[in-house]
Amino acid sequence: MKSKEIREMTLEDMKAKDAELTKELFNLNMRHATRQLDNPLRLRFLRKDIARVKTIIAEKAGGGAKRGK
């Protein structure tokens, strides 16, 4: 999922997407633990997607202010 696609979503949609991705990550972790996962790289991409969504949610919720010096 691209950042541009996420930024076009509403805040509620982003929170729903975050919940969906987190649930999917949990399920993939369970499958990975039982060695039933076909593509373990999917875990990495999913974690990055979750981080991307959470970052954009924080940006929108905080008014877009960046931390700096």
What descriptive keywords fit this protein?
mainly alpha; 3 helices; elongated; 0% strand; 69 residues; single chain; Helix Hairpins
The helix-and-strand class reads mainly alpha
Mean pLDDT: 90
Number of strands: 0
Query: Secondary-structure element order, as H and E?
Result: HHH
Terminal Cα span: 31 Å
Architecture overview:
- The protein is mostly helical and about 70 residues long.
- It has helices at about 5, 10-35, 40-60.
- The chain has one domain (about 5-60): Orthogonal Bundle (Helix Hairpins), CATH 1.10.287.
- Helix 2 packs antiparallel against helix 3 (about 40-60).
- It is elongated, with a radius of gyration of 14 Å.
Outline of the structure:
This protein is mainly alpha-helical and 69 residues long. The chain has helices spanning 3-7, 11-33, 41-61. The chain has a single domain, classed as Orthogonal Bundle (Helix Hairpins).
Task: Spell out the blueprint of helices and strands.
Elements: H1 3-7, H2 11-33, H3 41-61
Helix pairs in contact: 2-3
